[in-house]
Design goal:
- The strands form two sheets. This protein has a three-stranded antiparallel beta sheet with strand order 1-4-5, with no helix packed on it. A two-stranded antiparallel sheet has the order 2-3.
- It has about 230 residues and is mostly helical.
- The protein is built from five helices and five strands; from the N terminus they run αααααβββββ.
- α1 packs parallel to α5, α2 packs parallel to α4 (about 95-110) and α2 packs antiparallel against α5 (about 120-145).
- The termini are far apart.
Length: about 230
């Protein structure tokens, strides 16, 4: 089940670039964005570095120079290429990155062929969530880059970017004070979060069970994805 979900998510990342031109894959519209090709490589580097290298003895690590190029902020594993200059990385070409992704997927298939340990399952699930995070970032960064061009290129109005439910409805969420943050006794849950639990308050809201689609015919009026569907309850 975990392997099927993982490979489905990994395939989804590559499907997102299927409608793009080769020139689009290296597009970096601003210093805080990253090219689509970089996102595909970075998520693969994560599985290569943190899952396969420590847990699959037969795995051959990627080129160390790729680790420098596709690391983001994991300073404990080495230095990284400046984020603002990711758009100048024309090599490796996309065909080599896709080949690398296939090799990593094959390694993950071999590794998860048997029941994973709880530690390994948690690590793979973290990588899965990380991959989905970068799918969102890939689209956001791409739309930003498209919005800066006078020809107003379109990603595709028919793109399948919407997660739907059986019936969309308004869901109520009572306000109050809740505890957020990860406890020190549970370090695996501290990814992109805080390790000191604390209370925070918010008002009552209603939100839709399905978000509006972020697929747009062009990007003239917006450089970010659309995420509507929240109402204050007064």
């Amino acid at each position: 089940m975990l392997l099927d979900t993982l490979l489905e998510v990994r395939d989804r990342s590559e499907a997102l670039i299927a409608r793009l031109e080769p020139e689009d894959l290296g597009l970096q519209g601003m210093a805080d964005a990253s090219p689509p090709k970089w996102h595909l490589a970075h998520t693969t580097w994560f599985f290569d570095t943190f899952v396969l290298q420590p847990h699959l003895a037969s795995h051959i690590p990627c080129d160390p120079r790729w680790s420098y190029q596709f690391n983001s902020y994991y300073e404990t594993v080495g230095e990284r290429h400046p984020r603002s200059e990711r758009g100048v990385l024309s090599r490796p070409p996309i065909r080599e990155i896709l080949k690398w992704r296939a090799e990593v997927d094959a390694g993950l298939t071999q590794l998860l062929g048997n029941e994973p340990t709880p530690e390994l399952q948690t690590l793979v699930e973290l990588g899965l969530q990380h991959e989905q995070q970068h799918q969102e970032l890939l689209l956001m960064d791409l739309l930003d880059g498209f919005s800066r061009q006078p020809l107003e290129p379109s990603y595709g109005i028919d793109a399948d970017l919407q997660t739907s439910t059986v019936r969309s409805q308004w869901l109520a969420c009572d306000g109050g004070v809740v505890e957020i943050g990860a406890h020190n006794s549970d370090p695996q849950q501290a990814f992109i979060s805080t390790t000191k639990p604390h209370g925070t308050g918010f008002g009552s809201i209603h939100f839709r069970s399905a978000m509006n689609s972020s697929a747009m015919p062009n990007t003239k009026h917006s450089s970010t994805t659309v995420a509507t569907g929240v109402q204050n309850s007064g």
